[in-house]
Amino acid sequence: MQLRCLIAMEPPSRFDPDAVRDEKLKVIRAIERPAPRDIVRGRYVSNVPGESYLDQVENANSRTESFIALRLHISNWRWAGVPFYLRTGKRMAARHSEISIVFKTAPHSIFGQTLGQHRNVLAIRLQPNEGINLFVTIKEPGPGGMRLVDVPLDMTFAEALGRGVEDAPAAYERLIMDVIRGNQTLFMRGDEVEQAWAWTDPIIKDWREQDGHPDSYQVGTNGPEGAAALLHGDGRKWRDIDDRQDST
After folding, report:
1. Strand ordering across the sheet containing 131-139
2. Cα–Cα distance between 157 and 7 in angstroms, integer?
3. Whose CA is closest to 236, among 85, 75, 37?
């Protein structure tokens, strides 16, 4: 929820905790409630005895999910018609967190049909190896006509800022320091929490009223097949977790 708000929020009037949280609250209020077809729940299974979710929680009747994928829309002027896809889960292919911003294809291409297959992507990598990747489309060097290829422009904080990054406080340490300093910028305000639960509670209620169980996915994969179908219906696909530029 917080990452989605930080990406979609308008610039605050000033760098002030309440100004930042005011803009995040506007985003939460504008998020449309997803239809059942916009949500995929999953739960990991394994061929190894004792490694499946139900084995580990020791409750064969559990209907709790370990994965969720959503397609969301925000009802405001800036984001009208722009889908937001969220995916998170446990025991997947890798422990990886990133925000990927896929830019729209140009309305006209002098390169014919090939450009539509390539879209520039800005990937903000949160873990591991915090950094930024900008995937751009260039002409492949050499003879043989116009062939477009995607290449990454990679920046990691460790390389750009040197060894000092290794000594920087971890995420939770930073939050504790902010508490001591009285800086509430990174913390949710009460009205944010209430609005977030007002959006989430009806979804949870619908799940409890359903008789079905979450879709299964194997440990070490990218999630259930339904998550892939969620994007395929829009002519898109998830970025492969195991193909990322995690390190240099």
Report:
1. 97-102, 121-127, 131-139, 148-156
2. 20
3. 85
Q: Phi first, then psi: what are they for 145, rounded to 5°?
A: 90, -170
Pick from 104, 106, 99: nearest CA to 81:
104
2-243: which CATH topology? Dihydrodipicolinate Reductase; domain 2 (3.30.360)
| pTM assigned to the model | 0.85
pLDDT by residue (tens digit) across 100-121? 999 887 777 777 655 556 678 8
* Three-point CA angle 246, 97, 57, nearest 5°: 120
What is the token pair recorded at 79? 């984001």
Q: How far apart are CA 31 and CA 75, in angstroms?
A: 6
Task: Supply the mean pLDDT for the chain.
Answer: 87
List the domain boundaries for the chain.
Answer: 2-243
Alpha helices (H) along 102-156: none
The secondary structure of residue 134, as a DSSP letter, is E
Inter-axis angle of helices 190-209 and 17-30, nearest 10: 30
Structure-derived torsion over alpha carbons of residues 175, 20, 100, 248, reported in degrees to the nearest 10: -40
**2: CB partners within 8 A, 6+ apart:** 24, 188
Helix (H, G, I), strand (E, B) or coil at 59: coil
DSSP 179-196: HHHT--TTS--HHHHHHH
Bridge-partner residues for 86, per DSSP?
A: 70
